[in-house]
């Protein structure tokens, strides 16, 4: 099947009346891996949360469509069922709900009522993915994210990605707080998703994630906009030279606002 | 699942049957009513005397002024005794059709076949059906309604009746002692372990009905039993009253678990006194689920009077619109090296009010005893309230007491997280709530846990947004 298309046009987003995104344009198609990079406080995570519909973020202008459907009109759960997925930077802890019960509910939420995933199929696929991500089997019976280490939470996000199989995934700093071994494992999980029908938007500070997951496109965000796009070589140059050259090239000056956010 | 959901706030067990009762006393509480109840039951004189003594105490005793608001409770409007059928059935075929249908709807005969060792079904004032599996009978376990027990095992009943909870304990124990009818009597002989649960089911059908069952459980040395009770009633615009007394004696090395799933309609005052005494190295556990009623005031107590005795109470209370749950637990450490734990989980929604009211007492002899209390409250919206009112009475230095109380709200972040995985707001909230009460549901036998989850889901319908 042909992949989905997520189209973001002139997106303006505010939080508590303060404008964070000031006209973002981005198109992600099935089969493509995009990386969004940029200094702290430039709106990368805001972009991720706004696409998924976090209630704190208010879209004041612009559009987001998924295969032509207006995403902004959808509730958070409708966006998920339409094929979007957000791996969160800080996943919530849900006490009393086991990871496996939660996963099964999430999988079934995308299936027709009365057509839930058969238990044996679920267990088999879960076991496979746990093995792939080198997660201890007992995580399935632990309460969702409760008492998980930072690394365990990230692996759990990727476990959910593999299990839920969305059309378009946004990964918000999935590499933060991971040591190099964990980063490799998480990358292996993400790479497993690669196919013509899967599109991915990775948000990251660091080039090192991109050593393991090669993006087709790299975008640089500054002051609430995508200021530069290119191929994987752009990420390498950022790693080597930082962001200053872009600022110089594009004549961007640090505003008081962005300094404050960087603090 | 939401597609087949019932209408908002509908109470699933709110139906009522045509009145098929064969006898009922007039409204209001008089000496004549008490005498009539006793005569109908052909009781020994001592029991009638006890009832009358209790009645006098009930009249003399003022209404409690704490806990919930009892001003809407009119004792003159209540019908104190309704006899639903001529005799008790040993098979469901012997139960009058109308009543049998009610218990069918509640799923009792089905549950009995699947996993219960014995069943008692009380409708209004009397137990209309009773059974106990043969192997349990052969072990010497007595499981009867309390009226029949009084006829068949008078000495045993007399020895324990009113010893754990005297009629003068409080106004409602006095009321129950005056007009009690039905309830369960269980005796488990020394060393006998009942492997599957015994269940009693209490159903109120009539308007303004007062149900006053009286339960007495004696677990002899080294014996063990799990007793489960469930309760429902129809929805009426006027008030009904449920006021039970439950007395439990756990002897040395004995074990008793008492599980309640109370799901009364929103017009029922639920004012219950429950207490257990535990001898050396015995264990008592109250697993107490309070979902329905207009006002519940219930604080299951455990008196740890033998060295090394243990008491656990795990409770949940849910208060919705117009409901008050004033519930908690009491632990009395009266001997050395006793231990207790209280886990209370409550949540309120749509303006409901839920309070944890608890007491932990360490007596002078309670050397080396310890207690652990954990009270968690989840508030679903801004109209609802919760209170935690713990009392500690400590007369001994050599004890340990830990108390942890938490109040939380369903957070925006949690909802966003779950919804971003495709769960609707309703499903996400349900999941958070179910997780919150999981420490309670995991203590229930599987079948009840499933039922409990279904009830909670039902309670949650329409409470979002």
Automatic annotation (TrEMBL), chain A:
Residues 6-248 form the ABC transporter domain. SMART domains: AAA. PANTHER family: ABC TRANSPORTER I FAMILY MEMBER 6, CHLOROPLASTIC. Belongs to the ABC transporter superfamily. Ycf16 family. NCBIfam families: sufC. Gene3D superfamilies: P-loop containing nucleotide triphosphate hydrolases. SUPFAM superfamilies: P-loop containing nucleoside triphosphate hydrolases (SSF52540). It comes from Oceanobacillus arenosus. GO terms for molecular function: ATP binding; ATP hydrolysis activity. This is Fe-S cluster assembly ATPase SufC. The keyword ATP-binding applies. The gene is sufC. Keywords: ATP-binding, Nucleotide-binding.
UniProtKB/TrEMBL annotation, chain B:
NCBIfam families: sufB (TIGR01980). Belongs to the iron-sulfur cluster assembly SufBD family. Residues 202-436 form the SUF system FeS cluster assembly SufBD core domain. Residues 134-199 form the SUF system FeS cluster assembly SufBD N-terminal domain. This is Fe-S cluster assembly protein SufB. It comes from the Bacteria. GO terms for biological process: iron-sulfur cluster assembly.
């Amino acid at each position: 099947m042909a992949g989905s298309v997520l189209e973001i046009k002139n997106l303006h987003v505010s939080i508590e009346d303060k404008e964070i995104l000031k006209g973002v344009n981005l198109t992600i198609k099935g089969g493509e891996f995009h990386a969004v990079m940029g200094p702290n406080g430039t709106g990368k995570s805001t972009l991720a949360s706004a696409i998924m519909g976090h209630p704190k973020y208010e879209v004041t202008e612009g559009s987001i469509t998924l295969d032509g459907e207006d995403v902004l009109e959808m509730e958070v759960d409708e966006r998920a069922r339409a094929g979007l997925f957000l791996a969160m930077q800080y996943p919530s802890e849900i006490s009393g709900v086991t990871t496996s019960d939660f996963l099964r509910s999430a999988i079934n939420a995308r299936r027709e009522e009365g057509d839930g995933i058969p238990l044996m199929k679920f267990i088999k696929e879960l076991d496979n993915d746990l093995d792939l991500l080198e997660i201890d089997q007992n995580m399935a019976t632990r309460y969702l994210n409760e008492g998980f280490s930072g690394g365990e939470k990230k692996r759990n996000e990727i476990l959910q990605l593999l299990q839920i199989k969305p059309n378009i995934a946004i990964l918000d700093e999935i590499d933060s707080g991971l040591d190099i071994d964990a980063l490799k494992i998480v990358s292996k999980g993400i790479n497993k998703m690669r196919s013509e029908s899967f599109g991915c938007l990775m948000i990251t500070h660091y080039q090192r994630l991109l050593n393991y997951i090669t993006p087709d496109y790299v975008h640089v965000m500054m002051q609430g906009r995508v200021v530069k796009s290119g191929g994987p070589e752009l990420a390498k140059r950022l790693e080597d030279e930082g962001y200053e050259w872009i600022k110089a090239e594009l004549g961007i000056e640090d505003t008081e606002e962005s300094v404050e956010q960087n603090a | 699942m939401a597609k087949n959901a019932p209408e908002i706030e509908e109470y699933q067990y709110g139906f009522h049957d045509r009145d098929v009762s064969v006898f009922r006393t007039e409204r209001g509480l008089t000496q004549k009513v008490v005498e009539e109840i006793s005569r109908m039951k052909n009781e020994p004189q001592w029991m009638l005397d006890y009832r009358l003594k209790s009645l006098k105490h009930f009249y003399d005793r003022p209404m409690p002024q704490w806990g919930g608001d009892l001003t809407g409770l009119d004792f003159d409007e209540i019908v104190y005794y309704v006899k639903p059928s001529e005799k008790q059935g040993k098979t469901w075929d012997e139960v009058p059709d109308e009543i049998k249908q009610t218990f069918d709807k509640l799923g009792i005969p089905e549950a009995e076949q699947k996993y219960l060792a014995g069943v008692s079904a009380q409708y209004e004032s009397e137990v209309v059906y009773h059974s106990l599996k043969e192997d349990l009978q052969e072990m010497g376990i007595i499981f009867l309604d309390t009226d029949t027990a009084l006829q068949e095992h008078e000495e045993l009943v007399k020895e324990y009746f009113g010893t754990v909870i005297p009629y003068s304990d409080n106004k409602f124990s006095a009321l129950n002692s005056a007009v009690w009818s039905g309830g369960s009597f269980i005796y488990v002989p020394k060393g006998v372990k009942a492997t599957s649960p015994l269940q009693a089911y209490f159903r109120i059908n009539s308007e303004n009905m007062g149900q006053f069952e009286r339960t007495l459980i004696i677990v002899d040395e080294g014996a063990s039993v799990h007793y489960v009770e469930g309760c429902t009633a129809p929805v009426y615009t006027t008030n009904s009253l449920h006021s039970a007394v439950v007395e439990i004696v756990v002897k040395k090395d004995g074990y008793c678990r008492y599980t309640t799933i109370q799901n009364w309609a929103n017009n029922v005052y639920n004012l219950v006194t429950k207490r257990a005494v535990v001898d050396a190295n015995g264990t008592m556990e109250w697993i107490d689920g309070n979902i329905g009623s207009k006002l519940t005031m219930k604080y299951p107590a455990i008196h740890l009077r033998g060295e090394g005795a243990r008491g656990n109470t795990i409770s949940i209370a849910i208060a919705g619109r117009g409901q008050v749950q004033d519930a908690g637990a009491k632990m009395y450490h009266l001997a050395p090296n006793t231990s207790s734990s209280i886990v209370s989980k409550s949540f309120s929604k749509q303006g409901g009010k839920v309070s944890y009211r608890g007491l932990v007492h360490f007596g002078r002899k309670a050397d080396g005893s310890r207690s652990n209390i954990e009270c968690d409250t989840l508030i679903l919206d801004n109209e609802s309230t919760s209170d935690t009112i713990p009392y500690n009475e400590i007369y001994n230095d050599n004890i340990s007491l830990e108390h942890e109380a938490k109040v939380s709200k369903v957070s925006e972040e949690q909802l966003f997280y779950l919804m971003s995985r495709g769960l609707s707001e309703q499903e996400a909230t349900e999941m958070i709530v179910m997780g919150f009460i999981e420490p309670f549901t995991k203590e229930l036998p599987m079948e009840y846990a499933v039922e409990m989850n279904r009830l909670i889901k039902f309670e949650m319908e329409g409470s979002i947004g």
